[in-house]
Amino acid sequence: MDINIIASNILNPQILFYFLGVAAVVLKSDLDIPQPLPKFFSLYLLLSIGFKGGVELSKSPLNDSILFTLLAAILMAVVVPIYSFLILRTKFDVSNSAAIAATYGSISAVTFITASVFLQRLGMEFSGYLVAAMALMESPSIIIGLILYRLFTSGKSMEEFSWSELIREAFFNGSVFLILGSLIIGSLTGASGEESLKPFIDEIFKGMLAFFLLDMGIVSAKRIKDLKNAGGFLIAFAILVPLLNAALGIGLSALLNLSEGDAFMFTVLCASASYIAVPAAMRLSIPDANPSLYVPMSLALTFPFNIIVGLPLYQSVINLLWS
Amino acid sequence: MDINIIASNILNPQILFYFLGVAAVVLKSDLDIPQPLPKFFSLYLLLSIGFKGGVELSKSPLNDSILFTLLAAILMAVVVPIYSFLILRTKFDVSNSAAIAATYGSISAVTFITASVFLQRLGMEFSGYLVAAMALMESPSIIIGLILYRLFTSGKSMEEFSWSELIREAFFNGSVFLILGSLIIGSLTGASGEESLKPFIDEIFKGMLAFFLLDMGIVSAKRIKDLKNAGGFLIAFAILVPLLNAALGIGLSALLNLSEGDAFMFTVLCASASYIAVPAAMRLSIPDANPSLYVPMSLALTFPFNIIVGLPLYQSVINLLWS
Amino acid sequence: MDINIIASNILNPQILFYFLGVAAVVLKSDLDIPQPLPKFFSLYLLLSIGFKGGVELSKSPLNDSILFTLLAAILMAVVVPIYSFLILRTKFDVSNSAAIAATYGSISAVTFITASVFLQRLGMEFSGYLVAAMALMESPSIIIGLILYRLFTSGKSMEEFSWSELIREAFFNGSVFLILGSLIIGSLTGASGEESLKPFIDEIFKGMLAFFLLDMGIVSAKRIKDLKNAGGFLIAFAILVPLLNAALGIGLSALLNLSEGDAFMFTVLCASASYIAVPAAMRLSIPDANPSLYVPMSLALTFPFNIIVGLPLYQSVINLLWS
Amino acid sequence: MKSVKKLEIVTVSVELPRILERFEKRGVEGYTIIREVTGKGKRGLQDGDELTDVFKNSYLMIACPEEQVNEIIEIVRPIIKKYGGICLVSDAQWILH
Amino acid sequence: MKSVKKLEIVTVSVELPRILERFEKRGVEGYTIIREVTGKGKRGLQDGDELTDVFKNSYLMIACPEEQVNEIIEIVRPIIKKYGGICLVSDAQWILH
Amino acid sequence: MKSVKKLEIVTVSVELPRILERFEKRGVEGYTIIREVTGKGKRGLQDGDELTDVFKNSYLMIACPEEQVNEIIEIVRPIIKKYGGICLVSDAQWILH
Ligand SMILES: Nc1ncnc2c1ncn2[C@@H]1O[C@H](COP(=O)(O)O)[C@@H](O)[C@H]1O
Ligand SMILES: Nc1ncnc2c1ncn2[C@@H]1O[C@H](COP(=O)(O)O)[C@@H](O)[C@H]1O
Ligand SMILES: Nc1ncnc2c1ncn2[C@@H]1O[C@H](COP(=O)(O)O)[C@@H](O)[C@H]1O
Ligand code: NA
Ligand code: NA
Ligand code: NA
After folding, report:
1. With a 6 A CB cut-off, is D87 part of the ligand 3 pocket?
2. Cα(C35)–Cα(C46) distance, integer angstroms
3. Spacing of C-alpha C224 from chain mean position
4. ipTM value
5. pTM of the full predicted structure?
6. Which of A2, C63, C270, F89 is the most buried (most CB within 10 A)?
7. Are F32 and E89 a contacting pair at CB < 8 A?
8. Is E2-94 assigned to CATH 3.30.70.120?
9. What pLDDT was estimated at residue C155?
10. Could you state, in order of their start, the residue ranges of all structural domains in chain F?
C-alpha cells in the first residue's frame, strides 16, 4: 500500500473536520454541537444513503449474484460475533465478551457513508444493493451476542427477559428502520423520486457528512480517556479484529466475484463496528456489561482507524488483487 | 376519478415518507425526530412557500380577479366554521363544537405545500396570491369559533377574557406571521431576491418536505388511538366535511374563473383543516374543549386523507370539469 | 453617500428577514426559533465562511501585503479597546468600561458575513485572508480588556484568577476555533475540497443567513428595552465609536493599498463589535460588569446599525475615495 | 442559613409570562424555570409531542419566606384552575453566600 | 392544602414507558417528567453525550398520598436495581385549586 | 430507606465542570444535573435567550448523608458568590434498592 493514499485521504475535507473535532477536545475549546443537531445529521445521512441505494436497486434487477452477496453479508454478521466472543472470553467475563462481540459483528453506517465519498473521489461506483447489505448486517449480531450471553451464563432466569422486545430493538431500531425504509422508498420511486430529492440528498450530502464528522471527532475524542480502562488487549482487539474482518471481506468478495467498488464497500462493512445501535441494545439486554469498554473501543478506536487508515488500505489491497 | 392517480400520488417520495413515519409507530420502532427539528422543517417550509408566493406576486400585478379570490377565501374561512358548528351541535356541547368548527374553518399549510409539489409533478403551476389566500384563511375561524362559543354559552363572564390577546394570537401567531412576512419580503425583493435564495428555498424544498412528512407520519400515527374517543360521528365528520368544503371550493373556483392549477390549490385550502394554529388558540381560549378530539381528527384523519386521497381526487374532478 | 444605496441594501432579503424578526417582537407574535437552531445556523455560517476563506487563501500565496494587513488587523484589535476604555472611564467604573471596551475591540462574524453577501450583490470580491484577519481580531481585545481591568482595579488578588483559562477562552472559544479550523481545512483542501462542499457551504449560504438574521432580529429586539439602562452616553458610543473605527479602517486600508473590496471588508471588521465571544468571556472574567449594558449595546444597536446603515455607508465612502 | 418555603409549580408554559409579570408586581424576587416538562394529571397525558408549544408545561421553583407563600399561591391558583397543573409547598434551608 | 408525599426518581429514559404503563394499571394518577437529565452515580458518569438515547436518564416527580408510596416504589425498584438510578421521598403540601 | 439531605443548587453552567471536579476529589458520589434552566434572581433575568451558553444556568441535585452537606456547600458557595445562584437544603428518604 502506498502511504500517499493515506495522506490524500486525510486531505479529504470530511476527514479533516473529524480531526478538527478531535482537536477541539484536545485543546479544550468549548466548540460543541448540541443535540439534536448530531441527530439531525445522522438521520439525514441514513435517509439519504438508504434512498440513493434504493434508487440504484431500482435500476438493476435482483439476481443470484446479489442474493449471494446478501447471504454472505448476513453470514459475516453471524460468524464475526461468535469468533470475537471466543477470543474475548480468554480475558473477559461473559457479559463483556458478549457485548463487545456483538459490537464488532455489526456495522457502522457512517463508516460506510464516508467510504462512499472516498470511492466517489476515486471516480469509482458501487451497487445499490450494498446499502441493503448494510441494513441486513446491523442486527444479527445483537441476537447472536445475546444468545451467547444466555448460553454461557448459568442461572439466568429466562422469564424476566422479553425476546420480542429484543427482536424489535434489533430489527426496528431507528437507524435500521430508517435505512431500510428509505431504501424501499428509493426503489419504489426510482428515477422520478431521485430527481425530486436530488438536491437535498445528494448535493448537500458531503457538507452534512463533514458537519457530522466534526461532531464525531468531538464525541470520540471525549471517549478516548475511557480507553485506559480497556487496556492493551482490547486496544489491540479494536484494531486487529477489524483488519481480520476486512481480510475475510476481501476473500469473500473475490469468491463472489464482486466489482472493485463493491468489494471495497463490502470490505468496509465487514471491518466496521457499531457504536450506536448495538451499544444501545447491549445497554438494555446485557446491563451488567460495561459500556465504557464497548463504546470507546468502537467509537474512539475502530471508527477513526477505519476512516483514516482503513479506507485507503483496503482500497489499495483490493486494487492490487483485482487488477 | 382514476385509481391510477391515487396510486401514482402514493408513489411520491414525500407521501411514502409519511407512510414510513406511520409504519415506525405501528411497528414500534424507536425512530423519532426530536424537537426542535420538526419545528425547523416547518419554519423552513412556511418561510419558503411564503417567499416563493411573494416573488410570484411581484411578477403579476394585483387585479380584481385576485381580489375576488382573496375575498372568497375569507368567506370560506368564515362560513365553514359556522355550518360546521351547527352540524356538530347536534351531538356535542358548545365548547367542543366551537373548537372543532374552528379547526375545520382554517387551513393546513403542509397540505397546501404537499399539494404544490403534487401539482409540480403534473407540470402545472399556480399563482402566488394563493399563498396570500392561505395566510388570510388561517385566522378568521379562530375568531368565529370564539364568537360562537361566547354566544351559545350563557353566564360566561366576558371580563376575564382578553380579546386583544385573542386577536393577536389569531393574526400574529408564529405560522401566520412567518408566511405573511415571507410573502411580503418575497414580493419586495422579487426576482433578485429569488435568485439569491433559490438554492435554499427551492432546490432542497422537496427533501425538507419529505423529512417533515416523515415526522408528521410519526406524530399523526401516535394520535390515531385518540380517535377511539372521537367515535363514528366525528370520524365521518373528519372525512365528509372536507369533501363538502372541497366541493364548495371547486364551485367557487368555477365562479371565479380560476385557472386549473389555481382552482386545485384553492380547493385544497378549503378542504384542509388546521392542526397547529387553531388547536393552539383553542387550548387557550376554550380550555374546556377536549384537545384529544379536535387534534387527532384534523391531524390523524383529515390531513392524511387529504394528502393521500384528496389531492388526486380534487385534481381529477377539476381536470374533468375544466377541460 | 446616496440614500438609494441604503434603500437598496434594505431590500436585501437577508436584511428584510432581520426586520421581520424585529417586527415579530414588536407586534408580540409568538414566532420563535428555538435553540439549538440558531446555534446550527451560526455554526454553519462560521464553518462556511472559514472554509471559503481558506480555499481563497490556497489560491493566492501569502505575501508581505497580506502580512501587513493581518498586523494592521491585530493592531486595531489592540488599540480600539484601549481608547474605548479611556472614553468610557469618563462616565463609568472600571469593570463596565473594560467590558464594553473589549466588546468594541473585537468583531462580529455575522456582520462580516452579511457584508460579504452585500459585496457579492455589487459584483465585487474580497480576498480570503480577510477571513484570517477576522479570526485574528476576535480575541486580543479580551486580553486587553482584562489587563485594563486588572491595572485599574487595586486590591484585586491576582491569585484567584487563572490566566491560562482566559487565554484558552480567548483563543479557543468555539467560534474562533471553528473559523480558524475551517480556514485551515479550506486552505489544505483547496479547489478539490471546494468542489466537494460547494453546494452545502455556498449555494444554500444566503438562505441560512436569512434564517439566522430572522433570529438575530428577534433576539436583538428583545434586548432593546435593556438600552434604557444604558442611557444616552452609551447609545451615542454604540454608534459613534463604530463610525470612528470605520474611519480608521478606511485610513489603514488606504495606507495598505487594499483593493476596494478588501478595504470594505476590513472596514466592516473594524466597525463591528462582538456580541457572542467577548460578552461570554467578560461574563466569566469580569463578573461584576453588567451584561445588560454591553450585550444590548453591541447586539441591539451596533449590529443593526452596521448591517443597515453601515454597510452602504462604508461602501460608498470607499467607492468615492478609491475611484 | 435561612428557613424558607419551597414552591414547586407545574403549569402551562404559555401562561408563564403572565405569571412572571405578576411576580414582578408583587415583589417575588427569585425563581427558577425548567421548560418543557411532560407529564400526566387530571387532564390526561401531556407528552410534549404536539406540533404547537401551547400544550407544553413548565416547572417553576420558588424559594421564598413563609410570608410570601400565600401571595404566590393566589397568583398561580386561577391559572392552574383554568389550564391545569399542580402546586406543592415544602420546607427548605437557604444557604446564604 | 393536603399533605402528600413527593417522590423524586432518576432512572433510564428507555424504561420510562414501562414504568408509566404500570402506573396506569395501579392508578397512579399524576406525574411530571423532565427528560434528559445528566448525572453521576454508582455506574459512573452519564453525560448525555452518547450517540444513542439509551444512555439517557429521566427525572420523574410524583406527588401522591402516603398510602400509594409503597406501590410506586415497588414499580420502580426493580428498574433502578437493573439499570441504575435513585428514588427519594419527602414531604410536601399540595395546594388545591 | 435511609435519611439523607437533598441539596438543590442553581448556578452558572460554565462553572459546572469545576464544581464536578471538586466533587470528584472530595468523594461526592452522586448527583443529577438539569441543564439550561432559566430564572430570575438578584442579578436579574436569565432567560436563556443569549447567543452564548455562558449566561445559562444549570440545576444540580445531590442526595447525600448529612455529614457531607457542609463540604458540598463550601465547594459551591464561592461560585454562587461570584456568579450568582441559589443553594437549598432539605430532608428526604433515600429508597434503597
Ligand atoms: N400528582 C402529580 N404529581 C406530579 N405532577 C403532577 C401531578 N398531577 C399533575 N401533575 C403535573 O401537572 C400537569 C397538569 O396536570 P392536570 O392539570 O392535573 O392535568 C401534568 O401534566 C403533570 O405534569
Ligand atoms: N446521590 C445522588 N444524588 C443525586 N442523583 C443521583 C445520586 N446517585 C445517583 N443519582 C442519579 O441517578 C443516576 C444513576 O445512578 P447510578 O445507578 O447510581 O449510576 C445518576 O446518573 C444520577 O443522575
Ligand atoms: N428565590 C429563588 N428561588 C428560586 N430560584 C432562585 C431564587 N433566587 C435565585 N434563583 C435562581 O438562581 C439564579 C441566579 O440567581 P441570582 O444570582 O440571585 O441572580 C436565578 O436565575 C434563578 O434561576
Ligand atoms: Na463488522
Ligand atoms: Na378548511
Ligand atoms: Na471592532
Report:
1. no
2. 17
3. 19
4. 0.94
5. 0.94
6. C270
7. no
8. yes
9. 63
10. 2-94
